[in-house]
Design goal:
single chain, alpha/beta, Rossmann fold, 28 helices
Length: about 800
C-alpha cells in the first residue's frame, strides 16, 4: 500500500531550522506522556481500514479474480458488562396439562362425587392449573380446602405425580389429622387406597416438615425442637404447639439453668436482671387523672396532717408481727412533699435504690384505727395514701402490702449477689405481668415468627431514657444467645423451630446442599392451606427448598427435567394470628417471594357452600374496609340459603343464653360456642354447663365449646359468640418490632396496634362465618379496653338485630 505524500513528513526530511524544534517537541510529548491527536487518529484509522486480499485458486489456467477487500469494523465505547443473576425459584418446565386430562378429571368427578360436591368453574381453574404457582383465595366456606385436596388427586391420578413428591402444609395438628382423613376418603372414591399413615406423610404442618428435613442429616438426626421439649414426648411432638408460650417441664428446667449460669457468669446480664427485678417490685404508677386518684385525692390531702401518726400505727403492727425492721431495708423515715402536703416513707432499700412504704396486712383487724378518736379505719387511710404515692411520688417506691411479701423480698435481697431472682415483669402494652422466663419465651417466639433475630433485634429498637423495657430487650438478646448454645450442646441437640426454618431457608442455601434428595423431593409440589396463618420464616424456608430443587435439576439430563409447583390457598379476612407474628405474605406476595418464569394463576372464589346469605352478608360487613381484604362479594349457594337475619346481639343475661341454646339443642341443631376469656368461659359454664356435660355423657358432639382463635375449620348450624375481642393497649415495643419486620404499609407508624385492632374484627368475622343458619353474639361487658370489636363494628341496616337494652 503506498504511503501518502502529504504532511506530516519524517523528521529527517525537514529543514534543519524546523527539524530541531520538532525533535524537542517530540521529546517533550514523550516525557509528558501526551499524544499528538492528529497523528494518533491517522494511525488508528489506517489500521482500522486495513484490507485483506483473498484470491480464488486457479481453475484450469484461468486468471486470478480481483482481490476482495474486507473492512473490519470494531465497536467503539463498549464497557465491561456482567451477566445478570437469575433469582427464579422455578425452572422453565411446566405441566403439559391437556384438554384430555381436564376432561377425564371432570368426568370422574361427576361420577364419583355427589351433585352438591361438584367443583365450580372457578374451582376447576385452580384444580387443573398448569402454572408454576397458583393462588386460590375466597371467603369462609367457599371450598378452598376441598379444591386443594382435589388438586392432589389431579396431580397424582391424571398428571402421574408420585405421592412421595407432594406435600400439603396446614396450620396445626388438628387440621392436619382432619385433612389427612379427608384425603384418604377422597382417594378411595378414585380407587386409590392409601393408609392414614401415608396420608399423614403427605399432609403435614410446616413444623413437622422442617423437622423431618433436619432429621435427614446425621448431625441433627436426634434433634428435638425446643418448643416441645418435655418428658414423655408423644407422636404429636413434630407438629409443635403453635403460639403456645406456656413452658413445659423440661423447657422450664433448661431455661432456669441457663438463667442462673448466665447471671453468675455475665456481669452485664446480672445488672440488667437486677434492674428489671427492681422495677418489678415498684408500685404501679397511676396518672393524675386516673378515676381512682381523682376519687381518693380529697381524702388524701386531708390526712396529710396525721401522716406521722399513721406511720407510727402501721410500723407498730409490723413490729408486733416481728416483721420490722427487716434485713436489707434501712428503717428510716423520709419526708416528701406531694402537691404541697407532707408524707413520710418508712424505709429505704440501698440495693434497689428505692424507698419503702409499709402497707396494711390482711391478717390485722379491719376495724383498727390509728387512734380512738378517728372513725376512718387504718386500712382505708393506707389505701388512700398508696393511691396518692402512685400518682405523685417523685422517686422509686416499693409499697410492701403484706408480711409474706416482705419476707419474700428480704430473702431475694439476701440472695441477689449469687442467685438470680425469680420475679414477674410486665412490658408496656401487655395486659398482664408474667414470670420473667415465660415472658422471655413469649417475646422470643413473637420475634422468631416475625422473621427477626432474637439476639440482635434490640440493636434496631429505641426507647425513652427512663423506659426499663429497653433493658428487657437487651437482657433477652444476651440470654437467648446463651440458651441456644446450651440447647445445642445437649446430648440430643435442641433447636427452636425458628432456628430450624432459618437454617434451611434461602438465607443459608449452603445448608440445603447437604439434604438428601429423598427428603427434598417431597416438596416438588407444595400445597398450602390457610396460608394467612403462616409466619415469615416458613416462606423463607420454602423458597430455599424450591431454589435448591431447581439448582439440582440444572445438573440433570435435559430429557429428565422435572417441574415444581406451588399451590397457595387462603383468605386474608381470616388472618387471626397477626398478633403472634404471622403474615399474609404467603398469600399476598407469592409473585415476589417465589419468582417464576410466568405470572401466577390467581383464582378468587365467590360461591359460599356453608352459610345462609344473611350470615355471609353480616360477615362481610364486619371486615369491610380492612386493608388486604377483597371487596368482591360472596354469594351463598341456593342449597344453603335461608331467609332472615344472620346475627342477633344480646346482653349479658345468662337465662337468654340458656334458653336459646336449649331451643336449638332440642330441635337437633349442631351448636358451636366461642369464647375469649376465663371469665366468659365461667359465664358459659354457669349458664349451659349442664347441657354441655349432658351432651358429652350421651356420646354426642352436638355442642362444642372453643376459643375464638380455634374456630377455624369448624362449622355448626348455630354459633354463639360469647365475648368481645379486645384491641388491647398500644405497645411501643410491638409497634417497633412490626415496623422492623416490614408491616408498616402505607407509612403506618403503629403497625403493631393496627394488626391488633384489625384482628379483633377478624375474630368476630371468623366466628360468624362458622354458622350455617344463625349466629348469636353476646359481647360481654367488663373488658379493660375501651376499644373492642363491638365498638369498631357498625352493622349496616338489615345485617344484625340488636336486642341489647
Amino acid at each position: 500500500m503506498s504511503q501518502s505524500e502529504q504532511p506530516p513528513h519524517p523528521l529527517d526530511d525537514l529543514p534543519l531550522l524546523r527539524r530541531i524544534p520538532a525533535v524537542i517537541l517530540n521529546y517533550m510529548l514523550d516525557i509528558l506522556e501526551a499524544r499528538h491527536d492528529r497523528s494518533w487518529t491517522q494511525g488508528r484509522d489506517s489500521v482500522m481500514s486495513e484490507s485483506v486480499e483473498a484470491q480464488t485458486p486457479y481453475k484450469g489456467g484461468q486468471e486470478l479474480v480481483a482481490p476482495v477487500r474486507l473492512i473490519v469494523n470494531y465497536r467503539e465505547g463498549v464497557e465491561h458488562v456482567v451477566p445478570g443473576k437469575d433469582r427464579l425459584v422455578f425452572n422453565a418446565q411446566r405441566f403439559a396439562v391437556s384438554a384430555q386430562n381436564k376432561a377425564s378429571m371432570r368426568g370422574d368427578c361427576a361420577s364419583f362425587l355427589p351433585a352438591n360436591r361438584q367443583p365450580t368453574a372457578e374451582q376447576w381453574k385452580a384444580i387443573c392449573s398448569g402454572s408454576h404457582s397458583t393462588i386460590l383465595s375466597g371467603a369462609a366456606g367457599t371450598g378452598k380446602s376441598t379444591s386443594l385436596l382435589l388438586r392432589v388427586v389431579f396431580l397424582h391420578r391424571y398428571l402421574g405425580v408420585d405421592l412421595s413428591e407432594i406435600s400439603v402444609l396446614t396450620f396445626g395438628r388438628e387440621s392436619r389429622m382432619e385433612m389427612a382423613a379427608e384425603l384418604v376418603t377422597l382417594f378411595s372414591k378414585w380407587g386409590v387406597v392409601i393408609s392414614t399413615e401415608q396420608a399423614q406423610k403427605i399432609v403435614k404442618t410446616p413444623r413437622s416438615a422442617v423437622l423431618e428435613m433436619a432429621h435427614s442429616l446425621p448431625d441433627l438426626a436426634q434433634c428435638i425442637p425446643f418448643e416441645v421439649l418435655n418428658e414423655g414426648t408423644s407422636e404429636a411432638i413434630a407438629d409443635g404447639r403453635p403460639f403456645d408460650a406456656r413452658l413445659l417441664t423440661l423447657q422450664s428446667s433448661e431455661m432456669k439453668a441457663c438463667f442462673q449460669d448466665l447471671y453468675r457468669a455475665n456481669k452485664k446480664f446480672a445488672e440488667l436482671v437486677i434492674a428489671l427485678y427492681g422495677q418489678s417490685t415498684l408500685v404501679e404508677r397511676l396518672e393524675v387523672d386516673n378515676p381512682e386518684v381523682i376519687k381518693r385525692a380529697p381524702m388524701g390531702w386531708n390526712i396529710s396532717q396525721s401522716d406521722d401518726e399513721l406511720c407510727d400505727c402501721i410500723e407498730g403492727l409490723w413490729r408486733n408481727a416481728h416483721k420490722w425492721p427487716l434485713e436489707g431495708i434501712t428503717p428510716t423515715r423520709k419526708k416528701f412533699s406531694l402537691r404541697g402536703r407532707t408524707y413520710s416513707s418508712n424505709g429505704f432499700i440501698p440495693q434497689l435504690n428505692a424507698h419503702v412504704v409499709l402497707g396494711f396486712d390482711r391478717s390485722e383487724s379491719r376495724h383498727l384505727t390509728r387512734n380512738t378518736s378517728v372513725k376512718t379505719e387504718a386500712y382505708k387511710e393506707v389505701a388512700v395514701k398508696r393511691t396518692l404515692f402512685q400518682a405523685y411520688f417523685p422517686d422509686r417506691l416499693v409499697h410492701v402490702d403484706s408480711y409474706q411479701e416482705a419476707t419474700q423480698l428480704v430473702e431475694t435481697l439476701k440472695s441477689l449477689p449469687k442467685l438470680a431472682p425469680e420475679f414477674a415483669y410486665q412490658l408496656k402494652g401487655m395486659n398482664r405481668s408474667a414470670p420473667i422466663l415465660e415472658l422471655f419465651n413469649e417475646v422470643a417466639d413473637l420475634v422468631d415468627n416475625l422473621g427477626l433475630e432474637v439476639a440482635t433485634v434490640a440493636g434496631q429498637m429505641n426507647f425513652m431514657p427512663a423506659d426499663l423495657d429497653a433493658k428487657f430487650f437487651e437482657a433477652l438478646g444476651l440470654y437467648w444467645q446463651a440458651l441456644e448454645r446450651q440447647l445445642l450442646a445437649r446430648q440430643k441437640p435442641c433447636l427452636t423451630y425458628g432456628r430450624l426454618f432459618d437454617l434451611f431457608s434461602d438465607k443459608h442455601a449452603e445448608n440445603l446442599r447437604h439434604i438428601p434428595m429423598s427428603a427434598l423431593r417431597r416438596f416438588r409440589h407444595v400445597l398450602i392451606d390457610n396460608a394467612e396463618d403462616h409466619g415469615v420464616p416458613i416462606g423463607g424456608w420454602l423458597k430455599g427448598v424450591l431454589s435448591e430443587l431447581r439448582r439440582r435439576d440444572q445438573n440433570r439430563d435435559s430429557s429428565d427435567q422435572q417441574c415444581c409447583t406451588l399451590f397457595v390457598g387462603g383468605d386474608s379476612s381470616q388472618w387471626i394470628y397477626g398478633t403472634k407474628g404471622t403474615s399474609t405474605q404467603l398469600l399476598a406476595d407469592v409473585e415476589e417471594c417465589f419468582p417464576a418464569p410466568t405470572s401466577p394463576l390467581r383464582v378468587h372464589l365467590v360461591d359460599c357452600f356453608r352459610s345462609s346469605q344473611g350470615i355471609v352478608d353480616a360477615g362481610q360487613n364486619v371486615i369491610q374496609n380492612l386493608a388486604g381484604v377483597s371487596g368482591r362479594l360472596t354469594v351463598s349457594t341456593q342449597r344453603s340459603k335461608e331467609p332472615g337475619l344472620g346475627v342477633e346481639m344480646w346482653g349479658d343475661d345468662p337465662s337468654t343464653f340458656q334458653r336459646l341454646c336449649k331451643e336449638h339443642y332440642d330441635s337437633g341443631k349442631s351448636i358451636l360456642i366461642l369464647t375469649d376469656t376465663p371469665e366468659n368461659i365461667a359465664w358459659v359454664d354457669s349458664a349451659c354447663g349442664d347441657l354441655v356435660r349432658e351432651d358429652r355423657t350421651a356420646g354426642h358432639r352436638q355442642i362444642r365449646v372453643r376459643s375464638f382463635h380455634k374456630a377455624k375449620a369448624l362449622e355448626a348450624n348455630v354459633v354463639f359468640l360469647v365475648g368481645d375481642p379486645s384491641c388491647g393497649q398500644s405497645s411501643w415495643f410491638r409497634n417497633q418490632l412490626y415496623k422492623i419486620a416490614g408491616f408498616s404499609t402505607g407509612g403506618d407508624l403503629t403497625p403493631g396496634d393496627t394488626v391488633l385492632e384489625n384482628e379483633a374484627r377478624r375474630l368476630v368475622y371468623v366466628g360468624i362465618t362458622r354458622a350455617n343458619l344463625k349466629c348469636y353474639w353476646f359481647p360481654m361487658p367488663g373488658s379493660h379496653s375501651t376499644r373492642t370489636a363491638s365498638t369498631l363494628i357498625s352493622f349496616s341496616p338489615g345485617m344484625c338485630k340488636d336486642n341489647r337494652l
